[in-house]
Amino acid sequence: MTARADRLADLAAEYTRVRPRLVGIAYSVIGTVAEAQDVVSDCWLRLAEADERQAVRDVEAWAVVAVARRALDVLRSARVRREEYVGPWLPEPLVEAVSQDPADRVTLADEVSFALMVVLETLRPAERTTWVLHEVFGMPFPEIAGVVGRSPAAVRQLAVRARAHVAAGTPRTDVGSAEHGRAVGAFLRAVGQGDLRGLLAVLDPEVVLTSDGGGGPGAARRPVLGADRVGRFLVGVRRKMPADQRIVPLTVNGGPGFAVLIGAATRFVCSFSLHKGRITRVDIVVAPAKLPRDLVVPPPGGG
After folding, report:
1. Where does this protein have coiled-coil stretches (predicted)?
2. Are 250 and 258 in contact (CB under 8 A)?
3. Which of these, 287, 293, 291, lies nearest to 81 by C-alpha position?
4. Which CATH class is domain 3-169?
5. What pLDDT digit, counting tens, does each position of 178-206 carry?
6. Cβ–Cβ contacts within 10 Å for residue 262, how many?
């Protein structure tokens, strides 16, 4: 083995070690797993080329900056496509109950819920990148300045604006209480049974439901507002499901959610937010390209 081959092997080992964090950064900035993974793979090639010119001493620091810059470029390009998207655009959900290659893991901070990912979509690309790098991954402003191409002072202003938007847009939530657990169970039972009265008992009066189907059937083209409308929408969706559908509770971006399976295929993934025992937000991802294809769930009846 040549010295260069040994060096590349060492680089690859270090890059593999930090890859979950890098994918987490790219996903938080872009909102889709496949594009995040593409960014990280592309930056590995850039790392190998850069190291050949001059040895990279701190692989993780180099990679974080490179991945963040590339993710920002991808986000800027993606925003044009998302403005033309049919119906609401939701991020791709990170579903915990999937079997995947360890190299494709995503390290995401506990506070980055699906509802927060939705709020991040309202930020401008530079604001979003700044917020993610500083608030989630702890990068100092001078380093972020090199990523977004602004001065440290300008980056601080971006952070202030982003923080205000996130604070205003993120729904209030509470987690971990017995009341919370009862609400989740009641919601899942009511959805499974198509029980409108049961749904109304756990939905906040001002609940908002957003569904992303990319223009396909089974998704509302606009957000559904209010408990009665949201409840009736969910009951209507339930009535259209075939008899062999299954509701599978799981974790979506670290928070409560469920998937609906028809046979082995995932029909949609739902994430919801709770506050004081009531559902305040429901997000349903129906677009096939955003749904997990390798869910590992117990068979009907357990076992």
Report:
1. none
2. yes
3. 287
4. mainly alpha
5. 677 788 889 999 988 899 999 999 999 99
6. 14
Q: Kindly indicate the confidence band of residue 10, based on its pLDDT and cuts at 50, 70 and 90.
A: confident
The pLDDT value given to residue 108:
64
Main-chain phi, psi angles of 284, to 5 degrees: -120, 120
For the chain, the structural domain boundaries read 3-169, 178-290
In terms of Cβ atoms closer than 10 Å to its own Cβ (0-12, 13-18, 19+), residue 257 is buried
**Residue 107, both tokens:** 């390290």
- pTM of this prediction? 0.87
CB 78 within 8 A of CB 30: yes
CATH number of this structure's domain 178-290: 3.10.450.50
- What does the block give as tokens for 297? 């769930």
> Cα(279)–Cα(206) distance, rounded to whole angstroms?
9
- In this prediction, residues 51-63 reach a mean pLDDT of 90
